[in-house]
Specification:
Number of strands: 5
Strand order of the largest sheet: 4-3-2-1-5
Shape: globular
Strand content: 15-25%
Order of helices and strands: HHHHHHEEHEHEE
Structural class: alpha+beta
Largest sheet: 5 strands, antiparallel
Amino acid sequence: MNGAQDFGGQMGHGPVVNEIDEPWFHAPWEARALALTLAMGATGTWNIDTSRHARESLPPVIYLSGSYYEIWMRGLARLMVSHGLVTAEELDRGEVLVPPVTVKRVLKAVDVAAALAKGSPCDRPCDTTPLFRIGDKIRCHNDHVTTHTRLPRYIRGAVGEVMENHGAFVLPDANAHGKGESPTWCYSVRFQARDLWGAGADPHSEVMVDCWEPYLEQV
């Protein structure tokens, strides 16, 4: 969806400033926010793409005024309410008002290190033949969907060149909305900066974007 998270190529938001020796967390509550998000994700009630969509669909005024982990917590609260794991009134009052709901799985503290080390690979077998080959000229679809997508706004309608086929992966656009994993080929596509942002862009700059096959068409 087009939301406040899709900032690529936009002007007027100031420079990105790196923080020297930036700590993992700027306050103790941020570590707790990460732990809560991972613990609830491990229950299997939703997947990572559903979680991303919950954050990215926050109203822009809330998204842009929140810190990184504030956005995570607002997205988590939205998911928990929508799945009946907590009520809005419980969130407002900070206390349990209804009996807790049983979840599919519980991540025990003793299992956290192994679970994080294992990760969650999203590459999958695919029974279709790739539509594009290395060197093909492609155009990105100019789709402005209201659902989840990993197609950045700044490359929509732009022409690029396929540089690599990474293999097949879970399609976030489907997975975020309970439509299955839909394993789909994912390509690395190279764009010239001037093809994205016009004559004012650096003529020597290129942008590489990983694009799922449904985003692309042959030129």
